[in-house]
Automatic annotation (TrEMBL):
Pfam families: EF-hand_13. It is found in: Cytoplasm; Nucleus. InterPro entries: EF-hand-dom_pair, EF-hand_13, EF_Hand_1_Ca_BS, PPP2R3C. GO terms for biological process: cortical cytoskeleton organization; microtubule cytoskeleton organization; regulation of dephosphorylation. It comes from Acanthaster planci (Crown-of-thorns starfish). This is Serine/threonine-protein phosphatase 2A regulatory subunit B'' subunit gamma. Residues 183-259 form the PP2A regulatory subunit B'' EF-hand domain. SUPFAM superfamilies: EF-hand (SSF47473). Keywords: Calcium, Cytoplasm, Metal-binding, Nucleus, Repeat. One of its GO terms (cellular component) is nucleus. GO terms for molecular function: metal ion binding.
Length: 459
């Protein structure tokens, strides 16, 4: 018998001897606790007292108070309000901006470039010393270098610098204004938060003075949907305040403060009263049974009335409906997608509908599935259907996908032909426009030449 085997036998005998002895309940519990403590300590690792880094690393996570903790919630709201008020007081007011313009005008560096006054870095620093502490963040070498262009004397335009300051102040003011509606205080606005912001903004926009108060809720819904359609394509139900400030939508909305805004600018602005009334009027005209919702048959009359039944079926399968009918909010998403087919967010909307197999790509089957409906519409109008094989080849040639047999959403976006592909597959009028593009282009050129010659004669 080997030594290891003898040791094993000895250990077994000792275990049996110990097992034979009866232990009290307290001794058993004591041993269990000792064993548990030993294992827990080994698994937990070094204690906070042993690890010096715990005293150096600052706390970076603070748990939000729950709904039951009313006092903590009120304290948090009050502290945020105080913080935002302090930040607001740090911004330049109108008098301080006027004083800044006066100082820039006083210290400008000749000669002028046309009617534009210029300033060099030395005079720039002189203005900084006189402008006060609130202006200090704007008078840095970095800002000066950003605005420096091709001036032979190394100067920047006073007007460009002042516009830069104005824009910065406006951005900070707007951010603070939006943050007041950020209930969670996490830098996001939920749909209800943005609705409250726009509703309270309406009285400050002269271009919306003519709206009846009964239409306010529909106007707010129309305005909010554009923000969420483009800034929340993944449908998370919230958008970052930073994204709102970075896009141009808020500029378009606040453009309505201009009492003399031209009519063409109003018509092209989604947030204007004429635009909102147009969209809502179209919705009411489609709603033939006046139940406040749209059925598939009613939506089929949208635009030129040439959308295919297969595409409309997919809209009602994939989009939010109530008892098979579409409400105004879902209709707004549909309109935004149809009117902005070039944009990635609209292509994402359509791609979800076209991806009938749910494979995250379009193959020959998916293209044929939708184009057969176009062929059927052509037969109904007495036209000879176009061969699918030819259309399929043209689509793949336009998109040039990374995989020659699959078209992904990114392929559509990268190709810059996503709008054309979508129109070919869902709308007979869109397909007809694509097929006759050369004839239409020649007609447009002829019209433009005729108008140009007429203008020359008038001159």
């Amino acid at each position: 018998m080997s030594l290891s085997k003898m040791d094993w036998v000895t250990s077994l005998k000792e275990y049996n001897v110990k097992k034979g002895k009866k232990k009290s309940e307290s001794e058993v519990r004591s041993e269990e606790m000792e064993t548990f403590t030993k294992l827990y300590t080994e698994l937990k690792g070094p204690s906070k007292q042993q690890d010096k880094s715990y005293s150096v690393i600052p706390r970076f996570y603070y748990k939000l108070p729950s709904e039951d903790e009313v006092l903590l919630q009120k304290l948090r709201e009050e502290s945020r309000a105080v913080f935002l008020q302090r930040r607001s007081r740090e911004l330049l007011d109108n008098d301080e901006l006027q004083n800044l313009w006066f100082l820039l005008d006083k210290h400008h560096t000749p000669p002028m470039v046309g009617e534009d006054q210029m300033i060099n870095y030395e005079d720039f620093l002189k203005v900084a010393t006189e402008a006060g502490p609130k202006c200090k963040p704007f008078f840095t070498a970095t800002v000066f270098a950003k605005l420096l262009q091709t001036d032979p004397y190394g100067r920047i335009s006073i007007m460009q610098f002042f516009n830069y300051v104005m824009r910065k102040v406006w951005l900070h003011q707007t951010r603070i204004g939006l943050s007041l509606y950020d209930v969670a205080g996490q830098g996001y606005l939920k749909e209800s938060d943005l609705e409250n912001y726009i509703l309270e903004l309406i009285p400050t926009l002269p271009q919306l003075d003519g709206l009846e108060k009964s239409f306010y809720s529909f106007y707010v819904c129309t305005a909010v949907r554009k923000f969420f359609f483009f800034l929340d394509p993944m449908r998370t139900g919230k958008i970052r305040i930073q994204d709102i400030l970075a896009c141009s939508f808020l500029d378009d909305l606040l453009e309505l403060r201009d009492e003399d805004l031209p009519k063409d600018a109003q018509e092209s602005n989604w947030f204007s009263a004429p635009s909102a009334l147009r969209v809502y009027g179209q919705y009411l005209n489609l709603d033939k049974d006046h139940n406040g919702m749209l059925s598939k048959q009613e939506l089929a009359r949208f635009g030129t009335g040439t959308l295919t039944n297969v595409f409309l079926d997919r809209v009602f399968q994939e989009c939010l409906t109530y008892d098979g009918e579409m409400d105004y909010k879902t209709y707004l998403d549909f309109v935004l997608a149809m009117e902005n087919r070039r944009e990635p967010q609209a292509l994402q909307y359509f791609f979800r509908l076209l991806d009938v197999q749910g494979r995250s790509y379009l193959n020959v089957f998916a293209l044929n599935y939708f184009f057969r409906a176009i062929q059927e519409q052509m037969r109904q109008h007495g036209q000879e259907p176009i061969s699918f094989a030819d259309v399929k080849d043209e689509i793949f040639d336009m998109v040039k996908p990374a995989d020659p047999l699959k078209i992904t959403l990114q392929d559509l976006i990268n190709s810059n032909h996503g709008e054309t592909v979508v129109s070919i597959l869902i709308d007979l009028n869109g397909f007809w426009t694509y097929e006759n593009r050369e004839v239409l282009m020649a007609e447009n050129n002829a019209t433009n030449q005729a108008e140009g010659s007429q203008q020359d004669q008038d001159m």
